[in-house]
Design goal:
4 domains, four-stranded antiparallel sheet, Immunoglobulin-like, globular, mainly beta, 30 strands
Length: 394
């Protein structure tokens, strides 16, 4: 399900219980207004509920809105999905590699992502498992292949699982091979949300060995352990690490403006008392600091529509805005450290920023001292101007 007004928003994957004899299902859902979709890969594509007795539709706009209220039950949210033939790409071969994706408990994993590539990289294919955790790659030429599987994104039941190890399969002409893939049991996992509660995708994380707990990578250790990755489209992350003490950094994407960076986390993994690290849900917070100022020509004329960007030197804080009709701007900036500002003159402005930019200081309340007046010299072409912002407490 997805918010009724969020066509490109987050999918909420429900933990559905299906009666195998009647094919009826039940599921607990969060309150709100939603559109609901069902699928059964690969022959029954994503299709939206359009009414209890109507054919389901693959179009978002045709989906019927439902309202979930606490303490109430919605009946007859039925789906009628049209069968479609398997549209797997034909690589011109006659071989088949099929199998299943399972957990360490040998339970099939539905909607798991499976990747296949040939060792010479001439063949690359992706698919999903069906409701029983099975997959198939038909029409393959003879070659040596590498397979791997990953848990379905956004499904809480598989949050503690990570990508399987890569498995090699050698396939001859016309041969059929079966290969089971087992998801790794992740021991570091969690989820990151934006301040508005929406998922925070593509947040890069770095886990590094930190045996002395000082928050820094053990550069002097022989072969120190380190791992990295990104949150998925639903903000989830998971990874399997060896036993030792770690630090963990999260690096927010540049477009996460006005959001405070996360501090370094420290934790240990050992089999006796801390076999896993569950971060739970981390909700990012908006910054409480601001940088204000104006952009003007050398003659004092205000420049509107200039883009002002700011970022911390350590890359852990970002902000941007556009100057208003009076040339004024206000940035929500991350706390701590020293920052750079960049002023961009758009073609309509035609600016080359050449001026002596004074140092700007920000007080404990996050307000500037009034020296942040930008006076670019205009020369009829676009440019960038960078200057250092010494921010004591920002």
């Amino acid at each position: 399900m997805r918010g009724a007004n969020e066509e490109w928003g987050e999918w909420r994957h429900l933990n559905v219980q299906i009666d195998e004899s009647t094919k009826e299902y039940t599921a607990k859902a969060p309150e709100g207004t939603w559109k609901v979709m069902a699928e059964s890969w690969p022959n029954y594509p994503e299709s939206f509920y359009t009414g209890a007795d109507n054919d389901s539709s693959t179009s978002w706009s045709d989906g019927t809105t439902i309202t979930v209220v606490v303490g109430q039950t919605l009946d007859n949210i039925n789906f009628k999905i049209a069968f479609q033939a398997d549209k797997s790409f034909n690589y011109g071969g006659t071989g088949i590699i099929s199998g299943s994706v399972k957990t360490s408990a040998k339970e099939g994993v539905p909607r798991a992502s499976v990747e296949l590539r040939s060792k010479d990289w001439l063949v690359f294919a992706e698919t999903q498992t069906d409701n029983d955790g099975n997959y198939s790659f038909p029409n393959l030429p003879a070659n040596s292949y590498v397979l791997s599987a990953a848990p379905p994104s956004g499904v809480e039941a598989y949050q503690k699982f990570g990508k399987s190890s890569e498995t090699k399969v050698t396939l001859a002409d016309g041969e059929t091979k079966t290969q089971e893939l087992t998801l790794a049991s992740a021991n570091v996992f969690g989820r990151i949300l934006k301040p508005d509660g929406k998922p925070a995708p593509r947040v890069h994380f770095w886990i590094f060995e930190d045996s002395d707990g000082d928050g820094h990578f053990d550069w002097n250790t022989s072969e120190p352990k380190e791992y990295d990755g990104e949150t998925d489209s639903n903000g989830y992350f998971s990874v399997t690490v060896s036993e030792t003490s770690y630090g963990m950094e999260f690096h927010l994407p540049p477009h996460f403006t006005g959001i405070e960076p996360l501090s370094v986390y420290t934790f240990s993994i050992n089999s006796s008392d801390s076999a896993e690290k569950d971060f739970g849900t981390i909700t990012l917070s908006k910054t409480s600091k601001t940088i204000t100022g104006s952009v003007k020509k050398a003659d004092g004329t205000a420049i509107s529509g200039a883009q002002i960007n700011a970022w911390r030197i350590d890359g852990q804080g970002w902000a941007n805005t556009i100057s208003d009709s009076s040339g004024n701007y206000s940035l929500e900036a991350a706390m701590g450290g020293e920052s750079f500002l960049a002023v961009y003159g758009w073609p309509a402005i035609g600016s080359v920023c050449e001026a002596d930019i004074p140092v700007v200081h920000v007080d404990n309340q996050g307000h500037s001292d009034g020296n942040n007046l930008l006076r670019p010299r205009l020369e009829g072409r676009r440019c960038h101007h960078y200057f250092r912002l010494h921010s004591r407490d920002i």
